[in-house]
User: Fold these one by one.
Assistant:
Number 1:
Amino acid sequence: MIITPSQIKEIKKEAEREIEKAQDVLSLDNLWKKYLGRKEGKMNDILRGIKDLPLDQRPQIGALANQVSQKLEEKINQAKEKISQGKNKSSVKRDFTLPGRKIDLGHEHPLTQMRWKVAEIFSSLGFEILDGPEMETEYYNFEALNIPDGHPARDMWDTFFLKGFSQKKIKTTESEGKLLLRTHTSPMQIRFMEKRQPPLRACVIGRCFRNEATDVSHEHTLYQVEGFCVDEDINVSNLIHTLRSFLSLLFGQEVKIRLRPSYFPFTEPSFEVDFSCLNCGGRGCSVCGQSGWVEMLGCGMIHPRVYEAIGYPAGKYQGFAFGIGLDRLLMMLRQIDDIRWFHSGDLRFIRQF
Amino acid sequence: MLFSYNWLKEFLPDLKKTPQEVAQFLNQCVANVEKIRNLKEEIDSRVIVGQILEIKKHPQADKLNLVKVDLGNKTTTVVCGASNIKEGQRVPLAQEGTELPSGDIIKKVKIRGIESRGMLCSARELGLGSDHQGIFILPSDAPLGQILVKALGFNDYLLEIENKSITHRSDLFNHRGLAREIRAGAGKNLRFQNLKTVPLDTCAGPLKLDLKNKAPDLCSRYLAVILDNIRIEPSPLVMQNRLRNLGIQPINNVVDIMNYVMLESGQPLHAFDFDKISEDKKQAQIVIRRAQSQEKMVALHQEEHVLEKEDLVIANSKTPLALAGLIGGKDSGIDSNTQRIVIESANFNPINLRRTSWRLGLRTEAVLRFEKGLPLIFTESGLGRSLYLLQKMLGARVASSVYNFSEKSANKKVLPSLLFDIEKLEKFVGQKIPSSQITRILEKLDCQVTERKKGKLLQVQLPLHRPDLLAFEDLAEEVIRLYGLEKIKPQPIKAFLEPTLLSPELKLRKKVSQVLRACGFDEVYNYAFTDQPGKVKVINPLNSNQGYLKKSLQADLIKNAEQNLANFQQFKIFEIGKIFDPQEKIKIGGLICAPEKDIFQEAKGVLELLWEELGIDKQKFDYQEKGIYLGGKKRGELRLVSDQFAVFEIDFAFLIKEQNLVKKYSLISPYPPVKRDLAFLIDQKYSWAEIFREIKTISPLIKAVELFDVFDLSDHQKKIEGQKEKRSLAFHLIYQSKEKTLESKEVEKVQKIIINKLKQKFKAELRNF
């Protein structure tokens, strides 16, 4: 068999023509077999034939054949790539607006989220975070907090009284009085201070109960944040500073607050605290009843009779305490219309948070 | 409590502050003002004074009348159903177009064929108190045709103060007390108009009282005096209006004066008809005593009260005349024939009175004041004031001396004085308040102040009307609020740094919540109450569905799930809540709802993930039908409620002890693992746990045994294969060595041992699959 360079070039031309014509990958594969395939490929025939050539022609023809083979291989690959690219462009165009695959993560109840938020702030201010028992005794819920039986201040709290069937297990001695559901988190002031000596700072976040009918803005089950701080020289200006810091951190902006005199049996003096309405910036709107201020919490300097009940030496300690309704705070922040959503168990509500 | 701005101004004739400014001051320095009401705006000016000329029966309706009303310049006829009207009376007529406080608008209407142009109104319809017995009959001197608001002297503002914010200030439940506060807040020397009173020591007369106090512990002071020359009439319009505006129904001149004095100076008074309680018309007996058990008394409003031993009554020798401080008796009260009266001005034990009041449901204006512990001095000033008004308005005459019982401790003429430490105040407030300013504030509050120890201490003599000031903190409050709370500069707490880490309980809560939420659980909150009998009963539940505290979270989770089915096909919910068993415990409850899934296994998978995340070996748990056990103790439950719901409830407290949050690292083998699968037919009586344990003990080269397929042979297959009570278990076996690459023959060797062992122990039959 005689192989000339022109013969090789002829094959090359022919192959290139065919490659150009080819429309799909399959025909390109066939072309590859036709020219480069090990069995019947034309270029392979040539390469196989080289050994029969005169010695002096072998290097030249061999080099050329290899070169052409390589070239064709390249061309076929390029053509294939072109085809597959063309495919992507036309038929399999990605719609970037299609939604991603739905992945479910559970939702934390908005009140829990609020509890953590408050806990985080007070933790950062050096307050220990507590909860405490919901079943309380009259002593801790009232008496130790300077609300003796027969005191008109008891009218502030409508109370659920309880009867445990196994009285042995729920210890209420005569002096601790009746068993009840705590009406506020303040009993934890007593329980905590009974165990500890000042200086102390604590924040109680927990569930409380009021025996009153529910409606859009009233619940028999509610959540309260109670903070207190006692040392030898904790004073009114510290109270104001702490509350202002807390509210500013909670709302994520500087908040103005104002104190007004009020009455709570376990603090003296007692104050109501208003903060400047975030909705209108204090100009007056429907959220704040046109006053520019929102009434949010009660506070005061811990009453000496509370220290007396705990057994602290008279006159030694000063401290403040405050209480905020967590539900109301959340309702205001998120503009929730009905307090009963919180205990509805309705996922249409919970999944929004 | 409601306060009239005009009335306050009578005490402070030179007051320049507007009602809004007064309210602002009170809010900042005294107590919470909930509302300011402008009375003028509250009644439509189309309501005018008319006089009834004629009353005729409605031809078509028995219960209706046609009333012809003179309006001064014209007459009109209205249809009216009230039975208390008479010809000649003056009445309020709402003309066409009037908007009533209820929002109703008066229109010209035909009632049973007769046209009615306007409406005669009751006091309640006009928003004046609660009286809806009949038409509001005006005094005969109300000017005909005049706008009602004008005729009633409604040129006034009412300030509504939140009662609970002055619980500790019994001296403020009256106009004089609040006026004192306003004066304290005003500039220097605002003139204070004192009330005119009759000095009690000038009282004398022929009639006598036989006063006996058998319960001095419940009544520390009791003053009484007799008056004659009484003629019972309606009181003047001005007084009626004041009472009505402040929520008290006018009755007659004597009763109205009693109430008027209470609103004015804070002392509740009571009037008896002397001739009804006296036996011989010269002398009456008054005994203050505890009631007998089951003793009965019919009160003014005809209601019979059954008394208990600790109730205090005012009686004569025979019968109770009044329930002390609460309500008068039917047979001792003032009526239109009364000519002589006994006025009582007393101080009763607040706690005891309050108890009786709540038990009998008598929450009167008097109790509201008594239960706060009134200043003793009020008994005298109240009585003196009522005598002055009775003399001036009725021409009544004092007919006896003043009878006075005072318990020893109640007889003090001065309150103790307090030593007020100025440096302590600085430490308490956090900044210095100049001592001259402190003195000025205290003096404005009627204290007498003397400097002691070169001005470091102030000796403060308290006024008799402030028995609430007992300690340093009380005086500090007075000074701070009048000094101005806005002047106190916020200062951060100074303290030693102490670490304040979250408690283990809170950390665990956070962790559990994280794991469950990652598994797709949404958190719900439920009430503590249930109707299912539990270990703790609610003595006074809001309703019968909430009679107990719950001892499990599961029922409410199932209820939540059922309700959510209306909106969602599948979901998972959890709650970390308390149960009462009867001790209070925290539980973790969860529920999975997912149709066509093996929700039981899924729930178990969630728990296993939780154990793993908490670092507790999941193999330590023993799952039984009755519960989940760890170390022989029941720690929770996992059950299928129905095809729809799988529920679990786990103790919380034990997890704190069992958890191990420090994860251990174990060396990762550089040699490749070898994976093999095996499947067996095994009798159902053998649990997977047994089989698993058996395999694991065979060789240390077995790194993991992972079950991937379980099925019970169907009935059909059982018949064919005769394989009753058998199931197929298929699992992956992962072999790995830490020392070398395993050769296939080493693995096969162990595989053979497994096959033989399972055959031997469980009669397991190797399956091809």
Number 2:
Amino acid sequence: MTFHQKNVTVTLVNFLLILGFYLIRVTQLILSESFTLDKIIGVWITVVVIAIVVTIIGTILTHIISTIIETIKTGNEDPQVDDIQDERDELIDLKGTRVSNTVYSFSVLLAMLTFALGQPALVMFTLLILCGIIAQIAGDIFRLRLYRKGF
Amino acid sequence: MGKTQIKNNIRTLRFFNDEMTQAALAEKVGVTRQTIIALEQQKYSPSLELAFRIAEAFGVSLEEVFLYDPENGLN
């Protein structure tokens, strides 16, 4: 497994956890009958900040752990972690991004449709961030599939 | 998601070049070892630039490394 594969796996796990957090938080808000625009924007901000911070920390930790494993495996104190991004990594990344963008485009359409059908803006905002997370997860799953099965 | 229509002789050429390892070839042409593995398993078609770099690494022409097989990868 290359460094980039590990990185995609870590990002996927992060976003699955973020999805779990988001769903739990929204359910809590609905059950406590405090499901308002202010609260949902607060959750939005929390999710975005967590996503950025966790992704950065995840990348750094992946690098550190890869280096430690490589040191143990080779016995070399200054191991070479294969973290170069070659043309295959770039192509896989682009294809994954395309999947994410496609999923998100349909999601935005769906969210706007709920608004057009008379649902409150709150539902549209809730769906937008939910679909953003799902789009990221779909892109990462597609990237891992390309890494494993080829294309 | 099967095999590509580009066949290659990378594995054979590595063997005849002092049993060059995948890692050594990867380092020589500037890609990861996983890309060399994907190429040998015909799961990835390289760019023209990478194809030339691989041919140059073995000191042979492009046709001796890669060949186009339209029948491959259609099933």
